Amino acid sequence: MKAEYFRYVLQFKRPSGTSRGVLHEKETFILEISENGKKGTGECAVFRGLSFDDRPDYEEKLQWLCENIGQDPEFLKEHLRNFPSIWFGYEQAILNLKHGGNLYFPSEFTEGTSPITINGLIWMGSIDYMEEQIRDKLDQGFHCIKLKIGVDWKSEYEILSKLRQKFSREILELRVDANGGFSREEAKTVLQQLADLQIHSIEQPIKAGNAADMADLCAETPTPVALDEELIGITGFHEKKKLLEMIKPQYIILKPALVGGFAGSDEWISLAEEQNIGWWITSALESNIGLNAIAQYTFTKENPMPQGLGTGSLFVNNFESRLDLQGDLLKFKIKT
């Protein structure tokens, strides 16, 4: 068994705004594992500025994996515990090596017979730009949209209010993602305002790492709270269990590249379900390689909620994809 990797920089079609700044490009690494004339491909989708493993020795660890690719998977998993995106790439490449083609988790989804319902994502920007994106998503047939908030709450609240006046909760599900953009006191007010608008949930209202404050918010909130960044860097099973027991969120959101790949996501899901905490899966600006693998994995989890999967359309230089979006249904195209 041999392995090699290469760096790849994805270029955004249009700069994408978040509460952490505007993104123009997204760096990633592609891992290829070969054995007996077959090849498996995976994406080590590091997210600079957010990933737990965004550190100077990242490529050094990736090279270490290539040099030790034949070692026992449990040995590799332990050594890559602090490099979740590298482990994620390894999981993908091994699965692809096994199944071939574009396959990671063969299912009715990859047979083209069953789709995944996804939410539409609205990026931050001027009010006009955000409203333009919303119109596009509604025209495309989305029934659930997620808005990034936390930069200009007054304007963002105005947009949400207009949307809710036009579309009832039964017709349009609205989710918001604050990326930790509010203080604890601000969050209390925002949570009530969101409840008045019948918003489905808010992701990470305050910055990660403030577990006691987050627990207080979750205990009293009139709007369901979802943990996102709060999960990053929590690698041990007992640590994860303790975090969920302390905060008691209404939901958790799983980005496989940031929480230890499929194995890490499985662990979070089992713990959440034990505690009656809801969950869904979200991509994190992966290329079509990682996105394809995440979509296939997501289908196998049989969660009926709209999932937070991208469509690969943000980048001008993405890899070829078998994923196809029809309305709000993500499908896998079968070659004819």
What would you note in describing this structure?
- Helix 8 (237-247) packs across helix 9 (261-274).
- The chain is globular.
- By secondary structure, it is α/β, with parallel strands linked by helices.
- The strands form three sheets. Strands 5-6-7-8-9-10-11 form a seven-stranded parallel beta sheet, with helices on one face.
- It has helices at residues 58-67, 73-79, 84-99, 127-140, 153-166, 184-196, 211-220, 237-247, 261-274, 288-300; strands at residues 2-18, 21-35, 38-44, 116-117, 120-122, 144-148, 173-177, 201-203, 225-227, 251-254, 278-281, 323-326, 329-332.
Average pLDDT confidence is: 94
Q: Major beta sheet, specifics?
A: 7 strands, parallel
Question: What's the gyration radius in Å?
Answer: 20 Å
Residues in helices, as a percent range: 25-40%
Backbone shape: globular
Distance between the termini: 32 Å
The count of β-strands is 13
What pattern of helices and strands is seen along the backbone?
A: EEEHHHEEHEHEHEHEHEHEHEE
Summarize the structure.
This protein has 336 residues and is of the alpha/beta class. It has helices at residues 58-67, 73-79, 84-99, 127-140, 153-166, 184-196, 211-220, 237-247, 261-274, 288-300, and strands spanning 2-18, 21-35, 38-44, 116-117, 120-122, 144-148, 173-177, 201-203, 225-227, 251-254, 278-281, 323-326, 329-332. The protein has a 7-stranded parallel β-sheet, with helices on one face. A 3-stranded antiparallel β-sheet has the order 1-2-3, sandwiched between helices.
